[in-house]
Amino acid sequence: MDESVISRIEAIVGKDGYSVDSAELYTYGFDASIFHRTPDMVVQPRTVEQVSEIMKVANAERIPVVPRGAGTGLCGSAVPIKGGIVMDMSRMNKILNISVGDLWVDVQAGCVYNALNDAIGKLGFFFPCSPGSAEAATIGGMVSANASGMKAVKYGATRDFVLGLTFVKADGEIVRAGTHTIKDSSGYQLARLLCGSEGTLGVITDVTLKLATKPKTSASALVSFKTIYDAGRFVSAVMAKPLIPASCELMDKVSIDAVNKALNNPLPDCEALCIIEVDGEPEQVERDLKTVAEIAETIGATSVTPTHDKKQIAAWTAARKSVMTALSALKPGYSSVSLADDMGVPVSKIPDAVTRYQEIADKYRVTVATYGHAADGNLHTKMLLNPLDKDEWDRGVAAVSEIFDETIKLGGTVTGEHGVGISKAPDFQKERKTELSSIRAIKAAMDPNNILNPGKLEQWEGSILTNLRYPCKEYM
Ligand SMILES: Cc1cc2nc3c(=O)[nH]c(=O)nc-3n(C[C@H](O)[C@H](O)[C@H](O)COP(=O)(O)OP(=O)(O)OC[C@H]3O[C@@H](n4cnc5c(N)ncnc54)[C@H](O)[C@@H]3O)c2cc1C
């Protein structure tokens, strides 16, 4: 990084507000995806004014800036593929104001999801979009990815809770978008535009989120099936009843075997299962549990285990959350990698989707685990690969491309919650082809020098097999 730029950044954030140390820079080249690229500088601003001044310097010098929360993204959206500055927002982590009477909270972008939920939980509220990475993911990262989690089917995704936010544009202008009101018909919804923008349109510095009230009680049931197709039919039948569960997690045989091997058998040995949670008033919860059991019986489930026991529910949830890591323990020398990792399909298409994904995995001789938040149509497929072997990557990416084509044919999306980043960029471009010219026009208007997270989303060109974090020499 140019010495004059370093001294201008130091004048804004002080000596302890940035780093050009090579070891530190190397670590900021990762997120939780398969990619890596070392940046040239890391800055850690403390105020919106500092963010604005940094952006003015970067814009004048045409230096790429990649905003970063906790770096838990799974598709490479925080990897600085063109080098430049990584702007680490973790020092802007305060809860600014809570107004329970108005149902909102103002929170800085670097605040961690669990810290926010602990604070509002004491007041009887929660922010229900809990991702599997709740201990680390930041609110800014969640807004930028439009993240969600197990409870999206009933409560919605992050976008549905954003009433307003403050962001800094590429040229340093500070913009306050949206309101502190539950309703807002006041023209273009700029705050919504920033949701899912993955750091390409502005640096979010604080967010106004709507509060949800905590349900009085909840209970769960574990339902097992003879086939993954039956599990898919069950989820669809529950929704069509209509019964909107608080969550409904599906796991296939590969996921169940991996977890049982890694965690000493917390789950029944079966072909497929669903862990379904219902919440609300106690009488409603009892009625819903009964309905779930009736639907399971109609579908031909092999067992239904309902429970109110919090310890049992926590054990099932932990088992489900461990799939991604447990998979890596399934086969020595192999790693679970995020390629096609979070497709969304219409709920009625789940049985077809899960069956097709398995056929595609068999065709390309790759191991794929399918699991996920099935009641909102969001399916995860994690792939087990030998990450040192070029041929494994080639077959993996060919399989993924076909999985995405199938998803789009079923009326789905290549990403339901993790975002596009690098790993889904080519298929995002296929899925959104009629939107691309508008997306490019918006990007050019808001960031004319193309310095905010350049090269991603609609700008990606070529194969995703580049800049891999693994020592596979052909694709590093
Ligand atoms: C174990 C595990 C489980 C996960 N489970 C889920 C899940 O259930 N649901 C889910 O949705 N995701 C999940 N994820 C993915 C990830 O945690 C989410 O996408 C999360 O929202 C990322 O937040 P972050 O703070 O880590 O953002 P980062 O990874 O740091 O950044 C993500 C994107 O947001 C941009 N960004 C970050 N902060 C800002 C800001 N202040 N202003 C502008 N842009 C910004 C970055 O440039 C990047 O494009 C999981 C990840 C892991 C590792």
Q: Briefly, what is this?
A:
The protein is α+β, with helices and mostly antiparallel strands. The protein is built from 16 helices and 19 strands. The radius of gyration is 22 Å and the shape is globular.
Mind sketching the topology for me?
Elements: H1 3-13, E1 18-19, H2 22-27, E2 41-43, H3 48-61, E3 65-68, E4 85-88, E5 95-99, E6 104-108, H4 113-121, E7 125-126, H5 139-145, H6 152-155, E8 162-168, E9 174-178, H7 190-194, E10 203-210, E11 212-213, E12 217-225, H8 228-240, E13 247-252, H9 253-263, E14 272-280, H10 282-299, E15 303-307, H11 310-321, H12 323-328, E16 335-337, E17 343-344, H13 350-363, E18 367-373, E19 378-385, H14 390-409, H15 425-431, H16 436-446
Parallel strand pairs: 2-4, 3-4
Antiparallel strand pairs: 1-2, 5-6, 6-10, 7-11, 8-9, 8-10, 12-14, 12-15, 13-14, 13-18, 16-19, 17-19, 18-19
Helix pairs in contact: 1-3, 8-10, 8-13, 13-14
Bound molecules: flavin-adenine dinucleotide.
